[in-house]
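User: Please predict the structure of the protein below. I'd like the answer in C-alpha cell form so I can feed it into my own downstream comparison script.

Assistant: Understood. Taking the following sequence of 205 residues as input:
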Amino acid sequence: MKINQLFLPFLILAISSNSFLSSAAEAPPAVVDIDGKILRTGVDYYILPVVRGRGGGLTLDSTGNESCPLDAVVQEQHEIDNGLPLTFTPVDPKKGVIRESTDLNIKFSAASICVQTTLWKLGDYDETAGKYFVSIGGNEGNPGRETISNWFKIEKFEQDYKLVYCPMVCNFCKVICKDVGIFIQDGVRRLALSDIPFKVMFKKA
C-alpha cells in the first residue's frame, strides 16, 4: 500500500504530461513563408502564385464601370507584380501564429482610395458567371453566424498551400466548402470558389 502511495504522485504527473503532449500534438502545423519562417498575426505578407507565367500577386479591382467600390479580389496580370500586402488574423487574435486549416480573416493592409473595408468576404452567387467570387467589405472578428462569409483557411496542398472557404465559426450553419481558385472574367483574373485550387506561397512584405 505504501508503495502505491509513493508512486501515485508520479503516476498523476505522467498522466498530466501525456495529456499536455497530446494537446500540443493536436495543434495544426504552422504556415510558413518562402523563407521557411512561420506566418505571424498582424504581419504583412504577399500571396503569390507558385505556378509561374500565370499572373502575379493579389490586388483589388472594380467590377463595374465606376472607379469605386474596389470590390473584387483579383490577381495581377504580370508575374513581376507582387500586388498588395495582406494580414491574417485567426479566430483568437491573441494567437500569434497562423496555422493550417484554421479560420482566418484575410485583409489587405494597404489603404483603399474608396471608403471601404478591405477585409475579404465571400460574395453572393453570381448567376451570370455561375460563381461565388471573393470580394471585400467583411467585418473583422466576431466569429459566428453574422460573419460566416468572412472566414477563410490556408491548407497544405502538395508541397505548397491553397486557400479554402469552409468556415467553422458557426456550428449550426450550412456552409459551402470549396477551394479558392482563379476565374478569368473579361480578361480579369478573379478569385472565386473553384474545383481547381490556386496554389500559393507567402512572402513577407
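That's the full C-alpha cell string. The chain has one helix and twelve strands.
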